[in-house]
Amino acid sequence: MAPANLATKSSSPTDLRAGQGHKFDALDQALVDIVEGDSPMTVRQTFYQAEVAGLVPKDEDGYKLVLARLVVVRERFITVAKGPSLDPDLIIDPSRKIDRVPTWADLPRFLDTVKNWYRRDLWRDQRGALPIILIEKEALAGIVRSVTDDYAVPLIATHGSPSITVMKDLANFIGERHVAIYQFGDHDPMGENIPRQCEKALRLFGLGLGQVIREALTPEQVARWKLPSRPTKASGAGDHLGRAFKAEYGDSVELDALTTTRLRELVENAITRHVDQAAWTKSLKRQASDQRRLEKLIKVAAS
């Protein structure tokens, strides 16, 4: 186990990445084991798991240490250097993307791509509501996207409190659809208030959908799973939500404190409670049949 005092107030990012020989090897290996055991993960998820394991202190210095060492182990993977290493693809970082218009070498290659795009609207054959997943953080959206993609349900990262623009887009998408909206966010003053904000905004656009369901994090989940906490921020006399939350719950807990496996399970459970499995299986068979027909058409078009 790495000593908990490796990150100090005077430690710069360069100092923490330099590693002073093999001083951090034990911590590096522990971080690699955490990520590889429940990948992919965000940096903040990794920090919380490391903190729970007693590897780093529960403060900003501990987070900076985890962040710096994750840079080192990913660089080692790329350069094939000695010491613990980690595949960079196992850390989710949606904040840095390369935007480029997709292009293809020729028409046959484009058509080969098209056949993988086809997805039947499986929810048209379902009698229940279409689930919609709202998640507070873009990085965690990257964690659960594989689940929402599998079930072809909308996933919206609200980036904290949702903007009017986001809610207008959501209202336009919903239209006449029968939906069930599930919200996943931090157990803190902002996260607790997001469902109410969403309901208010949707009413503004003429949708009386009822409750936006707070699926996570709940106080019961925090207690049941003994999740690590952080001090609740109350920004002053005008922060009524912050003071009320602090009085009732005390500390806050970030959604990042959940493991990847548990977060994905929560999202999948919210979705599958609306799935008629017999109808779903029949729709998947129709989709497979459609894909075979499409492949034949593409072969004809490419010839």
Question: How much is the average pLDDT?
Answer: 88
Number of domains: 3
For the secondary structure, the number of strands is 4
Order of helices and strands: HHHHHEHEHEHEHHHH
Count of runs of 4 or more consecutive helical residues: 12
CATH class of the largest domain equals Alpha Beta
Q: Give the uncertain stretches in residue-range form.
A: none
- So what's the overall shape? globular
Give the N-to-C terminal Cα separation.
Answer: 61 Å
* Class from secondary-structure proportions: alpha/beta
* Percentage of residues in helical conformation: 40-55%
The Cα radius of gyration reads: 23 Å
- According to CATH, what is the topology of the largest domain? Dna Topoisomerase Vi A Subunit, Chain: A, domain 2
Strand order of the largest sheet: 2-1-3-4
Could you explain how this protein is built, in words?
By secondary structure, the protein is an alpha/beta fold. It folds into 3 domains: 78 residues, no CATH class; 40 residues; 148 residues, 3-Layer(aba) Sandwich (Dna Topoisomerase Vi A Subunit, Chain: A, domain 2), CATH 3.40.1360.10. It has 12 helices and 4 strands. A 4-stranded parallel sheet has the order 2-1-3-4, with helices on both faces. Strand 3, helix 8 and strand 4 form a beta-alpha-beta unit. Helix 2 crosses helix 4. The radius of gyration is 23 Å and the shape is globular. The N and C termini lie far apart (61 Å). The model has no long low-confidence stretch (mean pLDDT 88).
